[in-house]
Queue: 2 jobs
Job 1
Amino acid sequence: MMSQREKSVSQKQISKFLSLVLRHEPQAAGITLDEHGWANIADLIAGVSKKMPIDRNILEQIVAEDNKQRYAFDETKTKIRANQGHSVQVDVELQEYIPPNPLYHGTAVRFAQAIEKQGLLPQSRLYVHLSKDSETAKEVGARHGKPCIYEIDTKRMVADGYVFYLSANGVWLTKCVPPQYFINK
Ligand code: HQG
């Protein structure tokens, strides 16, 4: 019998690999994504199971228990996709919304100089990721090093024509944030 801890560690590893496959490198599981980012579940399970223990039940459990609700099934439950975070060019049919003001972006102190000059750029992803609370932003920033948080004047961005999207799992996305929209910088 696997202990709860062993079970959750390996589920975490499978989940990380799913993120890689569904956001960045579908070829790592020998699959393709359609234009809306969907992967066929049978193909995904067949591909991933060459590297890790996965079946339909494990996949359903990972999707249900994911702490950030990273994945979604389609209505027929034959397809799965990541809700956001992609670097591959897919259209996950993001909903456009007027965002709360302000929004926050967490990053690492070592990126601050470049960010204050160039603004926030999506780098390898399709969008800049923003959150509505500074705590979440701090956690996101801490993934990269000593965290530093930017507060963004979304009201002025909207007035200037910038478009914002809210992913199915609650992440705010926009193409870029020029430095003039940082508050208190
Ligand atoms: C930084 C996680 C230099 C940017 C999180 C960030 C998030 C610049 C890094 C999601 C820059 C890119 C995304 C510039 C931006 N010069 N650095 N001009 N503009 N940067 O991982 O936002 O767990 O691609 O600040 O929760 O950290 O994967 O983006 O530090 O929602 O589901 O370049 O990933 O979700 O890093 O994280 P990332 P992110 P998951």
Note: The mean pLDDT is 95.
Job 2
Amino acid sequence: MIVVLKPNLSRKDETAVLKEIRKLGYKPHVMRGVERTVVGAIGDERTHQTLETLTSWPQVESVMPVQKKYKLVSREAHKATSTVNVRGHWIGGKKFQVMAGPCSVESEKQLLSTAVAVRKAGATILRGGAFKPRTSPYEFQGLGEKGLKLLAKARRETGLAIITELLSEAHAEMVAEYADILQIGARNAQNFQLLIAAARTGKPVLLKRGLSMKIEEWLLAGEYVLSNNNPNLMFCERGIRTFETYTRNTLDLSTIPIIKKESHCPIVIDPSQGAGRADLVIAMCKGAIAMGADALLIEVHPNPAEAWSDGAQQVSLEGFERLMAEIQPFIAAAGRE
Ligand code: PEP
Ligand code: MN
């Protein structure tokens, strides 16, 4: 930590600060300038009391961390880009991956017909919520384990890998039994106990960005997965809440180069929750690919008008086929396959 002292302090006041820094378990290195003194305090904040308490001292102007708070997710910790293996499909590598399927698993017919269509169009991973985080308790909450069983059936019949949301710590083992990737939803992005439980299943984890989460907070939430011995983490931008009303959320594509720069973990874009409008999904996908995203997570429904959740943003089976054709030149231009 760097502790900046107020200008023109007496030696006595300075000594008191240095004494406190030592008392808290840090080694102070004093740097005297013309007007003011800066102290570099060497020590590990995880094993010592934080130095931030010094901000309330009248002698201290500010206390700043030297290092970033996140470690394991950072590019500094791991120079090469990490890849996540999902049943032989690598996310974060040369091959661009598409995860697609309905917002919610509704029925065998709905899921299977979607699975067959998205596979035919080139998706490798099937999405579908069995446990749904709904704003109102009176809305469809998902089929639960029955939905997980249908996802497993769709995997058996199509060979697609499965991504589904883990909503509660209590379901961690059950959901991990069926899923190939555990999705942590936007509403749970800072549910740290859930992140730990997800990490401990050993399954790859896709961490959505919270509705009003800063990128640093998102990276720190990801740190919970890596620090619980699970290296298979993917970040997923799905739009943040802003003042805009033309879209459901504001899809923040600037997170793609930022996550790439700050972290070695893959970045996935969800244009469906991001825009909340099916008519915008193709354009968002093209932009995301051009900016270096590693994968897309897209909502697809055989009959969006009758979907039990998120009907306005789901693309039809034909719409998805067209989308997959239209994004090909962007995938090639981005140097992906
Ligand atoms: C979803 O993917 O259907 C979903 C609920 O996502 P989010 O957590 O991003 O809202
Ligand atoms: Mn949805």
Note: The mean pLDDT is 96.
